[in-house]
Design a protein that fits this description.
Blueprint: E1 2-4, E2 6-8, E3 11-13, E4 20-25, E5 30-36, H1 40-57, H2 62-78, H3 80-91, H4 95-112, H5 115-118, E6 122-128, E7 131-139, E8 142-146, H6 154-165, E9 169-173, H7 180-191, E10 199-201, H8 206-214, E11 220-224, H9 227-239, E12 243-247, E13 252-256, H10 262-274, E14 284-290, H11 294-306, H12 326-342, E15 345-348, E16 367-370, H13 377-380, E17 387-393, H14 396-405, E18 408-409, E19 411-415, H15 419-428, E20 433-436, E21 452-453, E22 456-457, H16 464-470, E23 472-479
Parallel strand pairs: 1-5, 8-9, 8-11, 9-10, 11-12, 13-14, 13-19, 14-17, 16-17, 19-20
Antiparallel strand pairs: 2-3, 4-5, 6-7, 7-23, 12-22, 15-16, 18-21
Helix pairs in contact: 1-8, 2-4, 2-7, 3-4, 3-7, 4-6, 6-16, 10-11
The structure holds nicotinamide-adenine-dinucleotide (NAD).
């Protein structure tokens, strides 16, 4: 059985814990690896090493840090097939989708290469007579990241390239469900020339997470995962005086206006609802059919959902792979059962799909509900599977109200040909990431990613300019050099004369 270890101080190590987690290949429903579930002592050791590495790394000129990041980009590209295979074999998503997610992570690495420009600071000559003032952003120290199963490459890459470029050192605690890809990503950074101890991976579960939250030498925690855990991280990290950004779950609405290009809307929705088997925080799990578009929309969707090609991620013809674990498959099926009980109309039922040769894989076909109402649990809760709910709204205002009243606020889209509807939607909607005729409006690396409401606890979004702000603190220096001018003690609040 393949054993997945930690990566601490530039080496793979087993640490002090004898607890192990099972890592499955969801396409065949078989355990292929075990991952060491680290202890508090393992985390503390990694922090010690990262603290030591911080002394030199934080002093390295940003241009030299950037050169290592450039090499890292090349190495990740060179090893991309291997990284993608890890994603497919432990997460289940289809090969080209896994490649897309890795590319999105690489774009953050590319952005991080520009760190010298981003850390330039501000300078004002003569804020007072012969007095200059300037502001710089300095690194925080040992930062930590805790990441979910659904993007084992992209989400860690939202965090560590930015933190490290800014001069911090980093401890990553990846999901215990698919830890091979993040571990390899850390090794590759080391191969690119990153000094030992700058990037460490400690595998594990709640024990490592709690050790991160308690460790006094970690000043900042980034988290991505479900809302209850995001809230737990936010509260406990703040209680321990840490800076925190905690991104949570989602229920993303796609508003389909009667004047839209229906083909474009249906194709957009298909990818956004069923891509990665719905296991995306930006998946669109609710289609709001406005006015008289409902029946046409449902008819077109039905044909396409029934025709979805479901199969293992390594099969190039598959459009949708399995869910990540058996437990998750049961949970998603349970939600479909619940929707039927709650009175929604199940138009396409994917619960009983069987794939020849893959009978033990964690597959479910695409499911489509119509006439979903806002008080149903299948509307209110995140299902995180290939289940699309169609809700009918009489007009634009009712659709906007629905989106704004929902507890989650990650992403949303509108499909329309009307500029006024698109602009008003973007202006009024209480959501962090908005698409106009764009199905999954994930901001590119040089903008920043984050939701509103209970999809993000904290003040800053991830990567892009917000990433630089999160992983640095501001220092403002005011200075005067002796110039022969006489000065006397001053006992009043200094003002700039
Ligand atoms: P999860 O919350 O179960 O796990 C996330 C991380 O928290 C993992 O590293 C896990 O080990 C750790 N964890 C789990 N339970 C814990 C506990 N009780 N105490 C401390 N740590 C704990 O999430 P998941 O199932 O891995 O990922 C799916 C969720 O992530 C979905 O809700 C999805 O919407 C969300 N997500 C959000 C974004 C975003 O940007 N907002 C992006 C990706 C995924």
């Amino acid at each position: 059985m393949n054993l997945i270890q930690h990566f601490i101080d530039g080496k793979k190590v087993s640490g002090s814990s004898d607890r192990k987690g099972k890592v499955f290949n969801p396409a065949i429903g078989k355990q292929e690896s075990e991952v060491i579930l680290g202890s508090k002592a393992d985390l503390n050791l990694a922090v010690e090493k990262a603290k030591k590495a911080f002394e030199e790394w934080s002093n390295k000129p940003p241009i030299q840090r950037a050169r290592i990041i450039f090499k890292y980009k090349e190495l990740v590209e060179k090893n991309s097939e291997e990284l993608i295979k890890y994603i497919v074999s432990e997460h289940g998503k289809v090969f080209e989708d896994a490649r897309g997610s890795l590319t999105r992570g690489l774009e953050v690495v590319e952005f991080a290469c520009g760190i010298p420009q981003m850390l330039k600071g501000d300078f004002t000559e003569n804020v007072g007579t012969n007095i200059d003032s300037w502001s710089v952003r300095q690194p925080l120290g040992v930062c930590a990241g805790i990441t979910p199963f659904n993007f084992p490459a992209m989400v860690p890459m939202w965090m560590f390239p930015m933190a490290i470029a800014c001069g911090n050192t980093f401890i990553l605690k990846p999901s215990e469900k698919d830890p091979s890809c993040p571990l390899r990503l850390a090794e590759l950074f080391s191969e690119a020339g990153l000094p030992d101890g700058v990037l460490n991976v400690v595998n594990g579960d709640k024990e490592v997470v709690d050790a991160i939250l308690e460790n006094k030498d970690i000043p900042a925690v980034s988290f991505v995962g479900s809302t209850p855990i995001a809230k737990y991280i936010y509260e406990n990290a703040a209680k321990n005086e840490k800076r925190v950004q905690a991104l949570g779950g989602a229920k993303n609405h796609c508003v389909v206006m009667p004047d839209c290009d229906l083909d474009q809307a249906v194709n957009g929705l298909m990818g956004a609802a069923y891509g990665s088997a719905g296991e995306r925080c930006m998946a669109q799990s609710v289609a709001v059919a406005v006015g008289n578009i409902g029946d046409k929309l449902v008819n077109e969707l039905t044909k396409k959902v029934e025709a979805l090609k479901i199969g293992p991620g390594m099969d190039k013809s598959s459009e949708m792979g399995p869910l990540v674990t058996k437990e998750h498959l049961e949970k998603v099926k349970g939600y479909v059962d619940l929707g039927v009980k709650e009175g929604a109309k199940l138009i396409v039922d994917g619960r009983d799909i069987k794939l020849q040769g893959y009978e033990n894989g964690y597959y479910i076909g695409g499911c489509l509900f119509d006439y979903v109402k806002k008080d149903m649990r299948i509307y209110k809760e995140e299902i995180f599977g290939p289940v699309l709910s169609v809700v009918r709204a009489k007009d634009f205002d009712e659709a906007v109200q629905l989106v704004n009243d929902h507890e989650f606020g990650n992403g949303t889209s509108i499909y329309t040909r009307d500029g006024d509807s698109g602009r008003t939607f973007a202006n009024k909607i209480k959501i962090g990431m908005v698409g106009i005729n764009i199905p999954i409006p994930v901001p590119v690396a040089f903008h920043s990613f984050g939701g509103w409401k209970r999809s993000l606890f904290g003040d800053q979004h991830m990567h892009g300019p917000e990433g630089v702000r999160f992983y640095t603190k501001l220092k403002t220096i005011t200075s005067r050099w002796p110039s022969g001018m006489r000065s006397n003690p001053e006992f009043i609040m200094p003002t700039m004369k």
